[in-house]
């Protein structure tokens, strides 16, 4: 699986990653793989911060064949669209592209935020690679190593690393407050290290869920 991150109006992809100010500790989220407006037969996500507030959400989408899926929209807790994810139909590695909301309004959007795919065509390979795009003088993007994932998302046990080998985010099974009960896979923990855009990391999680 491979992710390509591009940004057409900034010098490079790393500069486009939102780096929150005055945050010196990891941010913990509880991810519930169910829409807050759920309907039977559909999927979605509800993501809560450590204060119990709804931070992100993905409303209902159908878990059907990729070629029948138009797009998935990641929103903040209030329902404001943040970015949209679209599958690339003719892809042996289940590639998905992410776009700014304004680009999604176009029939053929141009500037991708990132492109994500399996590391391998083999279904049992859980690794992912992330390539960031750095704009050259001719305004064309050159791909450079960015992130990789290790572990198994389906078992809710994986990490995202940057190109220096530092862990950026961790996905793990969720327990009750007294750690006495291990919850099912539909509820899991997402911990994001300081200095990394939680919106992008959550977008990676959505794609991982779609291509697993």
TrEMBL record:
The record's section on SUPFAM superfamilies has: Tubby C-terminal domain-like
> Could you tell me which Pfam families the record lists for this protein?
LOR (PF04525)
List the InterPro entries.
LOR, LOR_sf, Tubby-like_C
State the Gene3D superfamilies in the record.
LURP1-related
Cite the residue spans of the region called Disordered.
Answer: 1-20
Q: Which residues form a coiled coil?
A: none
Superkingdom of the source?
Eukaryota
Q: Report the family membership.
A: Belongs to the LOR family.
Q: This chain belongs to which protein, by name? A: LURP-one-like protein (DUF567)
Source species taxonomy: Eukaryota, Viridiplantae, Streptophyta, Embryophyta, Tracheophyta
């Amino acid at each position: 699986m491979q992710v390509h991150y591009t940004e057409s109006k900034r010098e490079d992809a790393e500069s486009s990653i939102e780096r929150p100010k005055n945050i010196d500790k990891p941010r913990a989220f509880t991810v519930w793989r169910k829409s807050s407006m759920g309907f039977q037969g559909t999927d979605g996500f509800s993501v809560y911060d450590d204060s119990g507030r709804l931070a992100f959400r993905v409303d209902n989408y159908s878990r059907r064949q990729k070629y029948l899926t138009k797009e998935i929209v990641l929103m903040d807790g209030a329902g404001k669209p943040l970015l949209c994810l679209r599958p690339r139909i003719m892809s042996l590695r289940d590639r998905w592209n992410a776009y700014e909301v304004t680009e999604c309004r176009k029939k053929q959007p141009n500037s991708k935020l990132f492109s994500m795919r399996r590391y391998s065509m083999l279904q049992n390979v859980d690794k992912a690679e992330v390539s960031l795009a750095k704009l050259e003088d001719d305004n064309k993007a050159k791909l450079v190593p960015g992130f990789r994932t290790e572990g198994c998302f389906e078992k809710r046990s994986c990490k995202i690393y940057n190109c220096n080998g530092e862990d950026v985010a961790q996905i793990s099974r969720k327990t009750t407050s007294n750690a006495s009960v291990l919850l099912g896979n539909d509820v899991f923990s997402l911990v994001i290290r300081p200095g990394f855009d939680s919106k992008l990391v959550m977008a990676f999680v959505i794609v991982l869920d779609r291509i697993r």
